[in-house]
Amino acid sequence: DTEVTQTPKHLVMGMTNKKSLKCEQHMGHRAMYWYKQKAKKPPELMFVYSYEKLSINESVPSRFSPECPNSSLLNLHLHALQPEDSALYLCASSPDKNGNTIYFGEGSWLTVV
Amino acid sequence: AQSVAQPEDQVNVAEGNPLTVKCTYSVSGNPYLFWYVQYPNRGLQFLLKYITGDNLVKGSYGFEAEFNKSQTSFHLKKPSALVSDSALYFCAQYSGGYNKLIFGAGTRLAVHP
Hints:
The complex is a heterodimer.
Chain A: E1 4-7, E2 10-13, E3 18-25, E4 31-37, E5 44-50, E6 53-57, E7 64-70, E8 73-79, E9 87-94, E10 103-104, E11 108-112
Parallel strand pairs in A: 2-11
Antiparallel strand pairs in A: 1-3, 3-8, 4-5, 4-9, 5-6, 7-8, 9-10, 9-11
Chain B: E1 4-5, E2 10-14, E3 19-21, E4 24-25, E5 33-38, E6 44-50, E7 56-58, E8 64-68, E9 73-78, E10 87-94, E11 101-103, E12 107-112
Parallel strand pairs in B: 2-12
Antiparallel strand pairs in B: 1-4, 3-9, 5-6, 5-10, 7-8, 8-9, 10-11, 10-12
């Protein structure tokens, strides 16, 4: 079972709102990721967690705040977003070893109004 | 810096004909290379990967890819295209030493009946 589950599938939020995206995997993977994807573009890496510790932050604005409560869960907290942050947010996971396959969830479609 | 190039924005092929989606990677010792497919409004699905071993890699849905070290290429192929193969295809390479995939720009495959 190579399943990464993301909720919600769709989210509309105002620029003053606080919301969260959630991601879960039960494959025993120890690396988890957040990617952002704009229409017809490749995914862009935002954050990498390795063994529940943040290992990569690709200079993401602080209005995006990741959290890894345990090895199966990954959250992305959103606050004071801008309309240009509207995108598909993809969560992914992999065994924590270079070269292992990264498995993606179906994504959360975010619209900021 | 490592980079992945997909020289074609779109590939058009008739159903039943062979298809090729091109990818070239930047030179980096032993590259770890991947192909993913994205159907409309969906997440990325893993197709296949090359880590080491045989240059011809077989993957999901009848796809295969040929690793060519001298040409630094990793083209995706299928002997007989289906309309249902129409999607966005991404080639990706691991950034050495990190759990980080570098994606190409993507190629839209359109298979016509």
